[in-house]
Amino acid sequence: MSNLELLSNDDRRTNGKDVRKFNIHAARLIKGIIERSFGPQGNEKIYIDIIGEATFTKDGAAFLRKIDVQHPAAKVLIDAANTVDNEVGDGTLSVAIISAVLLEKAEEMLSSNLYPATISNGYSLGLQYSLEALNKISKNIRKFDMSFVQKVLTNAFGTKILSFPSDQSKERSIADLVFDAINTVYMNNGNTLDIDSIKIEEKLGNVDESRLIDGILIDKTIDNGNMPRVKENAAILLLDDDLEPKRTRTDAILSIKNPKNMGLFYVEENNIIKEKLQNIVDCGVDVVFSRKGIGLFAQDLLSKAGIISVRRVKENDLHWLEKATGGKIIKELNVKDIKGNLGFSGKVYEKKVNDDKMVFVEKCNSPKAVTILIRANSKMILDEYHRAIVRGITMAKRFIQNPSIVIGGGSCEAILAHYIRKKAHSISGGEQIALTKFADAIEEIPLTLARNSGMNVIDSLIKLRHNLSKEIVDEKIKWFGIDTNKRNICELDWELIEPTVVKEQILITATEVSRLLVNIDDIIIKKPLMNTHTHEDGTVHSHEGGNEKHDHYFDKLGKQQRPNHHYY
Question: Of 448, 407, 560, which Cα lies nearest the Cα of 37?
Fold first, then answer.
């Protein structure tokens, strides 16, 4: 039966060499888009979505997520970058670059009639040898010291955050804030790091005004103008109950014929609230944070008692307050529950940040949750800082779990490539060629660093290989790599470090992606049903399912939302 008889008119089939050619071309296009952003000297990208909102970033994963690609190979490559980003918080550009170069090298071998299975096996061997070499050259930290986390963060932030030529210290100050937040949470949580114990708030302002709060910052105001604006050594109540007349969940009608009974009804409602508030006052509460409503009557009584209240607090904020203050969220206002579940804060106060008033809960005793307040002069830069901080925290967590390091600057990849080439001489058959090409692909990382730093790529490659030809002398490894500041090939020291777990994830993911795409020889595409439609804001476009009711949600940060972090 022919393809015309088997497939419908809406199906389009591509097979054989054309499939691999298109896959490799898609990977090459992805690499061409993002490789100029790689490294400390990399350039920024700007993406403008269909409603005209701009994203300014040098975060490869964020930018790739913005691109609406249709080709399946490009989608696979973007998904791989997302996986690395979510798992280890770094290495997204490296994965895209190595995967694309592996596919380019595969194209060269395919044109020489090397069979795809042979290429795939060779790449699998290359991964095995590279992980062996990585295990040999990496340095395990036996006596773990948080100073290593600080070095890792400082080096990582140098490649993630926008460059400010007039004041490079701004990058380091953000890295220091993140390190202090991680160190506080790590020490107070029994030497474990929970990513969601670090809250990130952002407001327009000067970068120098960014700060770490040893507690929680609530983007709310104090309920009543008659309440105190500051409370020292405050006992804090975290409440998940109403302090206002409750409404029934279903429609209900209360029939009162006598006007006096109406007054008695309101008096009884207020008495219920008074009883709850009396329990709060008797237990010595200074501040009340409630997830639900606090009525005007309750606010007035609280202000007369000198108690601060903040209503309609987000559920996530209430959980952060629970971790920071040591209190517990209660659902019933009785004396027994209140006394045993109060939290503590050295200072609770309201302060204006930019144009908004916010409530600071700080100076907590051994807080298990803290807040990083980041300031910048535009929303786009705030978003970029936010992305970098979340990725830095993720990377720090994985590094703490697996405290092993290598030297960066492309030196690690250069050593791995040198090791694989030496191993290739012991392999017979077509796998030897694939191993050599695998080494060339890994070597693309230092070469991209050199290219983006303004160095001559050919000269850099020759000098790098020459130095590495005598890299091991008496079992001592010499780490030759790219010094992007001096624009030179030199021996690097253990100040420029990267987590080994990031390198492992990059190698594994890039190899898996390239092997997958090399082995695909048939693609059948069903023609989608496109519907042109207009949205309420006047946007006209076409896509599948456009004839059905739907909404578009544009993720300005280009990152999946996590439960306790806010991405707008």
Answer: 448
The pLDDT tens digits for 528-541 are 655 666 665 556 66
Written as one string, the DSSP assignment of 253-286 is -----SHHHHHHHHHHHHHHHHHHHHHHHHTT--
Tokens representing 374 are: 């980041």
**Would you mind telling me the total number of residues written for the chain in this entry?**
568
d(C-alpha 357, C-alpha 345), whole Å: 19
Assign 299 to helix, strand or coil.
Answer: helix
- Tens digit of pLDDT for each residue in 23-73? 888 888 889 888 998 988 888 888 887 778 888 888 877 888 888 787 888
| Strands in 82-215 per DSSP E | 139-140, 198-204, 211-213
Q: List the structure tokens of 460.
A: 């850099």
Q: Give the integer Cα–Cα distance in Å for 257 and 255.
A: 6
pTM above 0.85, yes or no: no
**337: Cα separation from own chain's centroid:** 38
Angle between helices 92-111 and 116-137 (to 10 degrees): 140
For the segment(s) 215-366, the CATH number from 3.30.300.20, 3.50.7.10, 2.30.40.10, 3.40.50.1820 is 3.50.7.10
CA dihedral sign of residues 321, 325, 329, 334: negative
Nearest to 396 by CA among 188, 144, 44, 568: 144
Count of Cβ atoms closer than 10 Å to residue 219 Cβ: 16
DSSP character at residue 223? S
Which residues belong to CATH 1.10.560.10 in the chain? 15-139+407-521
Contacts of 450 (CB under 8 A, 6+ apart): 410, 456, 457, 460, 482, 489
d(CA 507, CA 163): 28
Name residues whose C-beta falls within 8 Å of residue 169's C-beta, 6 or more positions apart in sequence.
none
- Contact in structure between 28 and 103 (CB atoms under 8 Å): yes
Q: Quick one: CATH architecture of 15-139+407-521?
A: Orthogonal Bundle (1.10)
One-letter amino acid at 4 equals: L
- Structure tokens that stand for 192 in this block: 């474990």
Cα distance between residue 279 and residue 285, in whole Å: 9
Could you give the residue range(s) of every CATH 3.50.7.10 domain in the chain? 215-366
282 vs 223, 274, 307, 360, 390, CA distance in Å?
21, 12, 12, 25, 42
